[in-house]
Amino acid sequence: MTDTSPPTVTQLPDGTRLRVRPLAPADAPQILEGFEHLSQETRRRRFLGALKHLPPNHEHAITHADAFQHVVWGVAVLDELDREKGIGVAHVIRDPADPTRGEFAIVIADEWQHHGAGKVLTRALAARLLAIGIPIWTATMYLDNRAVQRLLADVGDEISRTVLSSGVGEIIYRLRPP
Ligand SMILES: CC(C)(COP(=O)(O)OP(=O)(O)OC[C@H]1O[C@@H](n2cnc3c(N)ncnc32)[C@H](O)[C@@H]1OP(=O)(O)O)[C@@H](O)C(=O)NCCC(=O)NCCS
Fold this sequence. Notes:
Blueprint: E1 8-11, E2 17-22, H1 28-36, H2 40-47, H3 58-63, E3 70-78, E4 84-95, E5 98-108, H4 117-131, E6 136-142, H5 146-155, E7 156-165, E8 168-175
Parallel strand pairs: 5-6
Antiparallel strand pairs: 1-2, 2-3, 3-4, 4-5, 6-8, 7-8
Helix pairs in contact: 4-5
Bound molecules: coenzyme A.
């Protein structure tokens, strides 16, 4: 299945234009470069541990997703010539045991955090996943990660919370129709 969702452009209050779209194979080099610029804290929060290198083939996997079992979208800042600079990625992996559920993860480049890009990306992904039948999202996170909890509360309602270990928990959300 190919994700033919058209890109959308959203303007932040400061005038910055963001384009959101499914990732494509040509995005792989930007994924590698973007990871290199993530702070230790952002890597820790995204991957739940200190990660020096991306897992092997990670950039290939997220830029060749099948768009049904694995849905991966990115957000980019547009310059005045409409050229993109990728600043974030979010994905959902469908649960093979319960296809209505999926595991959500997201990262926004440090210098763009807290500007609204995560919310723009998550809203777009949520609309897509409601359309393809993944209304239940599981997110594994440090339980003090208020930012991702605010993001997810914007698109869904928390239905359960399980403490796993050393500050990490799994929160399950049910997406609300837009
Ligand atoms: C979590 C993350 C994706 C949020 O993206 P973002 O672009 O910074 O978020 P936004 O600017 O769209 O803000 C979304 C909400 O989070 C809140 N928020 C953002 N950063 C915050 C922070 N550091 N502390 C508390 N709340 C924060 C915003 O106020 C907003 O809430 P509101 O709508 O109620 O005002 C980003 O901080 C990030 O990449 N963190 C590191 C990786 C990570 O934690 N991934 C999640 C693992 S599942």
